[in-house]
Amino acid sequence: MKIEEMKELIQAVSDSEVDEFKYSDEKCSVRIMKNKTQVVAAEAVPAAAAAPAPAAAPAAPEEKEPEVEGNQVKAPLVGTFYAAPSEGADPFVSVGDTVKKGQVIGIVEAMKLMNEVESDYDGTVAEILVENGEMVEYGQPLIVVK
């Protein structure tokens, strides 16, 4: 499964009422769970072991996110958020910093790949909503830019 296909699949599950999704074929097995801290994806599965995915469980009621004023830069994928380029380095941005559209505001590590997260907006960092090293979900707000 290609990265773009994986991103589309994650987006589809995120936008749906499904809490867990499983897919298997002779080349890979993918399991995506919402509101969990673990995502298991792309495990090699022998062709004989591949089985059709069971029906998803009914969705749990969603928690409402608190209202935040300003533009939210959101996580482009599921992974671990890092606020700095390396351990001990200064963070990419801090509250009060001016950011430009396209400026790197953090990194999300997914499947051992470091993905730079860029600001979608020009403005001032009003709030940082996640901690360094925290697991983030696709579409989860990371920072607020005003």
TrEMBL record:
GO terms for biological process: fatty acid biosynthetic process. Residues 51-60 have a biased composition (Low complexity). It comes from the Bacteria. Gene3D superfamilies: 2.40.50.100. This protein is a component of the acetyl coenzyme A carboxylase complex; first, biotin carboxylase catalyzes the carboxylation of the carrier protein and then the transcarboxylase transfers the carboxyl group to form malonyl-CoA. One of its GO terms (molecular function) is acetyl-CoA carboxylase activity. Pathway: Lipid metabolism; fatty acid biosynthesis. Residues 51-70 are annotated as: Disordered. Residues 70-146 form the Lipoyl-binding domain. The lineage of its organism: Bacteria, Bacillati, Bacillota, Clostridia, Lachnospirales. Pfam families: Biotin_lipoyl. Keywords: Biotin, Fatty acid biosynthesis, Fatty acid metabolism, Lipid biosynthesis, Lipid metabolism. It comes from Anaerostipes butyraticus. The gene is fabE. This is Biotin carboxyl carrier protein of acetyl-CoA carboxylase. One of its GO terms (cellular component) is acetyl-CoA carboxylase complex. InterPro entries: AcCoA_biotinCC (IPR001249), Biotin_BS (IPR001882), Biotin_Carboxyl_Carrier/Decarb (IPR050709), Biotin_lipoyl (IPR000089), Single_hybrid_motif (IPR011053).
